[in-house]
Amino acid sequence: MKTITSAKLAALAATADDLTIIDVMTPEEYAERHLPEAINACIYEVVFLERVHEAIPDRNAQIVVYDTTDTTRAARQAAERLLTNGYSKVDILAGGLAGWLAEGMPLIGTATVPVYPLLLDGRYELDITASRLEWTGRNINNRHLGTIGLASGRATICCGSLGGGTVTLDMTQIANSDLADPGYRALLESHLKSADFFDVERYPTGTVTLVAGEPVGAMPAGTVNYRFRALLTLKGITHDLEIPAVVEPQADGSIKVQATFAIDRTRWDVTYGSGRFFERLGMHLVHDEVGIDLFLIFRPAG
Fold this sequence. Notes:
alpha+beta, 9-stranded antiparallel beta sheet, 16 strands
């Protein structure tokens, strides 16, 4: 894959009539800062090639693509797609936007490489309307999907690290989401709320208490970057839990947390259909492991 230095691109831009520079990052980043005369065609969008075709119908035109730092596949992938689709003169800007800035070249917009939001110290409240807890239960032939209600939650940030907090579960809002028949769905939900499973009449709430959170270190966006040590209380029984999570601060000051893990339900005396506790279950056998997906949004407390 051919590359071009910032100095050579600047010289080429001053003389070439058929040169098009393409910023392949998101429209939001392009609006904040981009090379002079650059157009935007986001490589992450499915219409990337259509936008390039519309802007540059001549397959023999000179094209230079760039991303933010030239350390990921964004610019390279854009160049590969253009070459595969008949464009014959495609270069990648060495160093990307960061390399251009390091050479003292001009920009349209803020003359900095994007700095993404950080975790800000303070108290945060769980936005229960925008958050959800999903569960997956299985047996040998099937699986069921559903949700559990979230009643409240809070978290604290200290020294830029997500620390203690709690999330209160509304066990009376256990719901199934995969059964289309209303009668079967209501029957399953009633069973899950009964003493066979979570006994919500006696234990209407559960809690997840965050004891400690350890950052995993510099990790790519969208991968696990925190591991929480937590306590889960269900049916009045408390056991420890490790929760791997993706923690992402947002530009509006909120914090998104996504976690996927599994629990052994029998630790909390949810033993219905468990082969550890009953024999010859047949069609009533239920796997002990329950999958949990958390999608939480914490907002700064007023």
